[in-house]
């Protein structure tokens, strides 16, 4: 096993401080009243890891080793069986949607432990658990107004629950819990990379064809009750993150029903499908032409649509000066700067202003602005891009420095929801000389595309 890496801090598992409740197992109640000296050693060693040097730790890691480990337990296993935790291996015993108490859990199905033991002991798999746990906070932000001990209690409860699950399973394994929206979070592959490093398996040596990821977030669609077969109605999955993680890694994906119960696959869908956006063939198509000696070009498009990239590649070479509210900080300064640029004889591209010009009322102010400045022509470039693609582009940009020359941080969901709730298609009749429609196509190197063409949400 490799030595402890940068960004990893060992921490001891916290003592049990919970009160016995009806949902706690009898064994847990008995353990509560057992003197510490007589309790079995907790065999789960906990640590924390950070996505980058000099950043707070966001990944919680619990490594379990049985009491009697032998050489076969420590050798490399190139087949990896990775599992989600909640609603895949365990569910709340109380029947609640989320179990708050560390003793409130049971196996998703009674066959789960035997399946996992068979994978490890008979089929030579390394068994690990990869779980998104956004409800946990390892290190609160210094400016957070939330009670400081509230986060510690949740983390403590989670560790107690995982320690109990791993002890019952009693296999050499590790649970990885991603607590932030960074590269550790599924479907991003940060946790998978940690698995490979922890077990000293270079990623290119993993037997991808025979490895597997099992999780309940498969993008399955809702299913009506089938009277003929007696199949019950089922709701749709809350996301497709588990299926997308398997896609990113390049391993098969199974739902818990398929893997543990042998049920047939159900239909699924993705809000954003990479298959729709293959690497484009090179073409010399001109996307924007200059038609006036001096004019204003107003961009209309959501965050993450590629507006800045389009400006630098297509309008800057034609002599357009850029007006960007992200830089100028206020709408008033945007109008002032645009007026100064026009006064100097420049043409102006209004790139990122007011999230960016989704409705006719906002666009009207720029049309009136053009009229007041000697009736300079104003054109519109409309970026026709769906919301899911914009959210994808935003995350790719935020988490990959090579694709983020302006060092932009990721945006909250409200930025996209706000734009699309207000959006009205731009029309020439609003006062534009013309409206140039731009459909999305990836524009960059194959190396850049290899980063872009993964699932990030």
From TrEMBL:
One GO BP annotation of this record: DNA repair
Domain of life: Eukaryota
Region (Disordered), start-end ranges: 1-75
Compositional bias ranges of the Basic and acidic residues kind: 39-52
UniProt-recorded Gene Ontology molecular function terms: ATP-dependent polydeoxyribonucleotide 5'-hydroxyl-kinase activity; double-stranded DNA binding; polynucleotide 3'-phosphatase activity
InterPro entries found in the cross-reference section: HAD-like_sf, HAD-SF_hydro_IIIA, HAD_sf, P-loop_NTPase, PNK3P, Polynucleotide_phosphatase
Pfam families in the cross-refs: AAA_33 (PF13671), PNK3P (PF08645)
Name this polypeptide is given: Uu.00g076610.m01.CDS01
Lineage: Eukaryota, Fungi, Dikarya, Ascomycota, Pezizomycotina
